[in-house]
Amino acid sequence: xxxxxxxxxxxxxxxxxxxPDRRPCAIDLSDNTNLWGMPPAAERAIRDAASSTVTRYPExxxxxxxxxxxxxxxxxxxxxxxxxxxxxxxxxxIRAFAEPGDRIAIPDPSFAMMPAFARMNALAxxxxxxxxxxxxxxxxxTATNAAIVYLCSPNNPxxxxxxxxxxxxxxxxxxxxxxxxxxxxxxAGCSMVDLAMGSGxxxxxxxxxxxxxxxxxxxxxxxxxxxLVAEVEKSRGPYKTNALAERAALAALGTGLDWVxxxxxxxxxxxxxxxxxxxxxxxSPLPSHANFVLVPVAHAASLAAALHARGIAVRPFxxxxxxxGSALASTGxxxxxxxxxPWPMLDQALGxxxxxxx
Length: 358
Known about the structure:
Blueprint: E1 27-28, H1 40-47, H2 52-55, H3 63-73, E2 80-84, H4 85-97, E3 103-108, H5 113-120, E4 124-129, H6 138-143, E5 148-152, H7 164-173, E6 177-181, H8 185-188, H9 193-197, E7 202-207, E8 219-223, H10 226-236, H11 243-253, H12 257-280, E9 292-296, H13 300-309, E10 312-313, E11 315-317, H14 327-330, E12 335-339, H15 343-356
Parallel strand pairs: 1-10, 3-4, 3-5, 5-6, 6-7
Antiparallel strand pairs: 2-8, 7-8, 9-12, 11-12
Helix pairs in contact: 1-11, 3-11, 4-5, 4-10
């Protein structure tokens, strides 16, 4: 039987599925999640959930979770919108604030899914190189006249933090909404929430996948002026966070918060130890404010494969746009991204690196 011709969106023609190498590995340092696990309070909340938690719909717009997140972020509940992971919140925000054909300005390199989200929503991604010190180029970003400016700080995959002065210049000059992705804010010890609350055009997007150890439950949220988040909520639709995830998130934001903060502190300590150990191997890791470290190396893909054969998973990058004269430029934009975790994991990864490095 011959299938009828299928009509598809032309903007999807060259889109590829997101497909990182997720083959099982003894030590997985590839996805920037919390390698210390999940808060015990969240685990208990899931284990003790009543059957009605599963058989009934969750709250339509996650009002209880909004209240808890608002307390954590120091804002009012009306300034919070939630979603199925920060990806969902980003996707919803793009739909809310741009029309098909509009531009979205994105630093390069940055979160790899943003150009895909742009094309999924019929927007034109405009990639703007980072400056020599891995900061955002405020003048170049605003010169795009984009309907949306996307920023990621700390930036993925570089781990570097964008300067507040550059972000403030963009927020003051941008034509449209400025989205600041703060997925790794807990590890940086700083945030732009105050900037968002003083502006009607800045939206902070965060996740509970990293510091909170709830990646598998997909809890994302955004912080901004109530009028701004209300538009995102229209775009995201109802019932986007599941009831078990909400229950675990509420526990993590309550009695589990001390556990989370202690693991953030441990991650920051291990990040410094990992950077020093990599430097002792003759490598030049980028300064990181996140829970991972980007390490410029030649032949990143083959090195990652060799590590995987030794039971260590890391994320290889090849062809990243690199500032002239930087360590990343010297490797042709090739690098390995390593998630920070408990030292025994990192020590095994470093031992494997010693075996395979020239």
